[in-house]
Amino acid sequence: MPPQHDVSSSGPSFAPSLFAEDCLTASPAVRLRRLAPADAPAIAEGLSDFEVARNLGRVPHPYTLADAEAWFAGPAQDPDALRAGLSVNGALAGMVSLDPVGGAMQLGYWLAKPFWGRGIATQAVGAFVDFAFAATRLGAVEALHMVDNPASGRLLRRLGFAPCGVTRERSLARRATVEHTLSRLTRADWTARQPAIETARLSLRTPTTADVEETARLPADRPVGLATAQTAAMIGQLDEARAFILRAAREPRPANLRLLMRLKETGALVGTIGWRAAEPGVVDLGFWLGVDHRGRGLMTEAARAAIEAAFRWGAADAVRTSCRATDWATRQVIIRCGFQWEGSGLVRPTSGGPVAADQFRLDRDTFLSFREWTPAAFHLSAG
Ligand SMILES: CC(C)(COP(=O)(O)OP(=O)(O)OC[C@H]1O[C@@H](n2cnc3c(N)ncnc32)[C@H](O)[C@@H]1OP(=O)(O)O)[C@@H](O)C(=O)NCCC(=O)NCCS
């Protein structure tokens, strides 16, 4: 069942499989993953620290293993909440969650004290919020933080949350009523912070579930060139399109990034482009343009802008790509972007058997000098 969350409707639920796979963050050590009852001891250890519990309204102090086990047996089952474990180097170190509270979805998070002050929570909560907006139809996320918890306030501000009110709430651990600041991040504000590329004719944006149906209609044919399919959108059906979008939402940005290409003039979805970290300093670029839109230079226009973004945002020193040996149209796009031929070999696309492919590489220095004499008009915004 697809995630169908919409804060304006009642009784929505998140698909339990949303966090079946890890959600990666910009730091390889920090991940979001599905919680399991076996995490109860780690949760109890983290929340039994008064320094953690005092900033969380509904966590009592002392907090024991029995409390964590009771939480797994009860509230953790709520299908209207979205929750993820935060792991650092494979060990559970905290949690991030979205719970329905009074018609809104409220963000909550905590990190065990030994991990504080290293930017871990900002990274993990940021990845969670990005994932929640990309993978659901959520209209807004709210968060409450106690006015004497500046770390939480700064974290929310950094993620784009805007303060919108003050309220007094009960703190179980403090056994007192505490003043809180209410902050909100709307989908529009979140969207405005997402990586975006504008070329003369195209808008390139990260996908969300709102794009599923159109994405599923995209490939009238199977991708032929697609630089050969390592980042391919083999997306001819709704479930494949949804899986493609969820995969994109789980990837560690900006080391990996997938973008949907739309024509500015009509808003029509015409293709996909993206890169993925292959080895330190090197990203693999993949792209695909719908068959009806080929022959107008659109792919070269998008690829040149995406390559610039991969160098800037993905911190790449080199971009690699490949195309089927017989695919002259894709080869032309690749050559026009300044890639140098590196060799030939067998490449295994995301589906099907291995195909004969040519491999190409573009180093940062070559790209910079190439850009000098073939300036391109595009605008990158990292959000
Ligand atoms: C809030 C919490 C998750 C932050 O975790 P963290 O990994 O240490 O946070 P980060 O390192 O990402 O830092 C977040 C911001 O707070 C700032 N910060 C950290 N400690 C601070 C402090 N004591 N005073 C002021 N600012 C502080 C950081 O500098 C950073 O701001 P910046 O990005 O502008 O530099 C963690 O302290 C925690 O779990 N606290 C207890 C539970 C809690 O408060 N949950 C949130 C409830 S709303």
TrEMBL record:
Main EC class the enzyme belongs to: transferase
**Secreted: is it a keyword of this entry?**
no
Q: Tell me where in this chain the N-acetyltransferase domain is found.
A: 30-188, 202-365
| Keyword annotations of the record | Acyltransferase, Transferase
The record ties this protein, via Gene3D superfamilies, to: 3.40.630.30
Give its E.C. classification number.
2.3.-.-
- The domain of life for this entry's organism is Bacteria
GO MF annotations for this entry? acyltransferase activity
**Keyword Transferase on entry:** yes
Which PANTHER family does the record match to this protein?
Answer: [RIBOSOMAL PROTEIN US5]-ALANINE N-ACETYLTRANSFERASE, GNAT FAMILY, PUTATIVE (AFU_ORTHOLOGUE AFUA_3G00765)-RELATED-RELATED
Instruction: Say which family it is in.
Output: Belongs to the acetyltransferase family. RimJ subfamily.
What is the name of the protein in this document? GNAT family N-acetyltransferase
